[in-house]
Amino acid sequence: MNEESNQHHHHHHRDHRNNEGNPAVQSRRLTVHVTALDGLVNVNSLFTVAVFVGLSLTTPGQHSLENRAPCDAGVDVAKKLLVFEVVSFSFFLFSSLVAQGLKLAINLLNSKDVDEAFRAHINLKVLRFGMMGSAVGSVMGCLFLMLSMVNVIEIRLGMLSCGSKSSVHAAAALVALVSSALLVYISTAVYAFLH
């Protein structure tokens, strides 16, 4: 087994010399990583805009469209909304910055004057954990954004506790769709991480 991996390493090293540090397979794999990271940054940017839209939609002491006093959201709901939106924004920013850092690392890997040991070290450690960290940041941001959107629904359409039909339907649709999408995203990210 060891002999085999040594041979593979020598062969890889020879390839590395012939192709001036750019073996086709590694380059292709890294291109996929860059594409994935680009996608993550774009999605995070979209969600960051959503955070500010959520903030601009709500003003303290606003009456809900339900037009019944018990259905109006209190100050505590508006406070929770602000906290959730700020935390969500922080997670998206974290995720995007990590993704940008990884793109820099990948560009380093693709450059010709990086030695083999450094290349292997970045490949295994930084890339896999960094991508996982970025994905986790994105997922946490989505969760907090979903919670803040529930608060927006309560402020605009009436409290869920007072049985406002439109509120319940909107919140149910939001939670169901976002949760299922997150499940798909998490399972794909875990699969990619393990393989």
Pick out its properties.
195 residues; mainly alpha; transmembrane helix; membrane
Report on this model:
- Keywords: Membrane, Transmembrane, Transmembrane helix.
- The chain crosses the membrane at residues 39-60, 81-106, 126-147, 168-194.
- Residues 1-24 are annotated as: Disordered.
- This protein has helices at residues 2-18, 24-57, 75-110, 116-157, 165-194.
- It has one domain.
- Helix content is 82%, strand content 0%.
- Helix 2 runs antiparallel to helix 3 (75-110), helix 2 packs parallel to helix 4 (116-157) and helix 3 (75-110) packs antiparallel against helix 4 (116-157).
- The two termini are 20 Å apart.
- Residues 10-22 have low confidence and may be disordered.
- The longest helix has 42 residues, at 116-157.
- By secondary structure, it is mainly alpha-helical.
